[in-house]
Amino acid sequence: MVERFRAMMVTKEGDAQSVGFQEIAVDDLMSGDTVVNVEFSTLNYKDGLVLTGAAPVARTFPMIPGIDLVGTVESCESGEFAPGAHVIQNGFGLSETHFGGYAAKARVKSEWLVALPENMTPRQAMAIGTAGYTAMLCVMALEDAGVTPDKGPVLVTGAAGGVGSVAVALLAKLGFEVVASTGRAEEEAYLKDLGASSIVARDDLSGKPRAMAKENYAGAVDSVGSTTLANVLSQIKYGGAVAACGLAGGMDLPASVAPFILRGVSLLGIDSVQAPIERRREAYKRLAQDLDLEKLESMITDVPLSEIVEWGGKILAGQVRGRAVVDVNA
Ligand code: NDP
Questions:
Q1: For the chain, does the N or the C end have fewer beta carbons within 10 angstroms?
Q2: Looking at the chain, which runs of residues are DSSP E strands?
Q3: Ligand 1 atom 15: the closest Cα is on which residue?
Q4: Span 59-113, pLDDT tens digits
């Protein structure tokens, strides 16, 4: 008798998208050399786009959503991982071109997987998820660009969101003075507990951008884009840098070149989806070392997979604080 398991499936007929559960078998999964028994996935902004169909992220249908997964290896033809080993996958096409993490099993390529760090539980790995691993990539990029705590404060936009929360916690632990920008004034205490020194209102960064403004920050992690990123660039100190990873406020960039050519400011593009495996391993090594796990716990909301569609709408509306961990078997 073939074992069947629950998978969330996004299907499309014409322009109409529907999302529901199906019972499938391993042979219904896409090709790959490794079968993983999935324990947890996550909810990222991009998952919200897929679940609601708000943007064409999934490129083939039917699609199992979920851009992240953690679980144990059931079988691995390449021999890279032993059966029972805990592995993580972020991106690499999950929920875009390859079936994702919102199912009890996944079949993927072993070259996409990172071993779960020893001091991290599967739930913590998904509390980090793509958002947290991207925050780490942003911090590493700022470090590579020479942004150090002695150069001045750093700004994090979209601070109460997933990328933002992890970025605040990481930067604070690394000794930076962190200024958190949020549209949710009620999250001031949460952000200060994560390590923010002060709060800037989202509105202060969303007006018409000036070419250059007062030099307030040595660096920034921006998950918002659009006018916010343009305003951030205008406030970066001479020789500073901004790691840009998101578009929660829009995909455009109505900015001036003035900060680049008159202050030597760098705009660092961050992509997590196709980041090379060596960079991912480095990011997880750093997360295991530099992320305060108690602070991570304060970011978590546990969401059963059965409620994920509703949560997809919430994250796009900016109503999810920190990180949502998805129990795929609940
Ligand atoms: P979240 O929804 O958790 O966080 C986004 C935050 O941005 C919100 O919590 C809110 O923060 C702020 N925000 C939301 N809407 C607006 C708006 N209209 N104007 C200004 N600020 C807004 O999402 P994630 O943290 O998962 O992702 C953040 C962004 O980064 C997304 O655009 C996502 O697509 C992108 N991303 C990119 C990756 C990459 O590889 N480049 C990887 C991961 C994410 P607050 O309430 O504090 O203001």
A1: N
A2: 5-13, 16-24, 34-43, 68-76, 86-90, 105-108, 114-115, 154-156, 178-182, 196-201, 217-222, 236-244, 266-269, 300-304, 323-327
A3: 248
A4: 999 999 999 999 999 999 999 999 999 999 999 999 999 999 999 999 999 999 9
Ligand 1 pocket member 77 (CB < 6 A): no
Span from the CA of 314 to the centroid of ligand 1 (angstroms): 12
Written as one letter, the residue type at 218 is A
Rounded distance between C-alpha atoms, residue 84 and residue 37, angstroms:
9
Residue ranges of the domains in the chain? 5-116+299-327, 130-269
Percentage of the residues of the chain whose pLDDT score is greater than 90 = 98
Q: Against a cut of 0.85, is the pTM above it?
A: yes
Structure tokens at 259: 């900060």
Any idea which fold 5-116+299-327 has?
Quinone Oxidoreductase; Chain A, domain 1 (3.90.180)
On the CB side of 131, CA atoms within 13 Å amount to 38
Are the CB atoms for 44 and 68 separated by under 8 Å?
Answer: yes
**Ligand 1 and 161: CB distance under 6 A:** yes
CATH 3.40.50.720 corresponds to the domain 130-269: yes
Q: What is the mean pLDDT of the chain?
A: 97
Question: Most distant CA pair in the chain: distance in Å?
Answer: 69
Answer whether 226 contacts ligand 1 (Cβ < 6 A). no
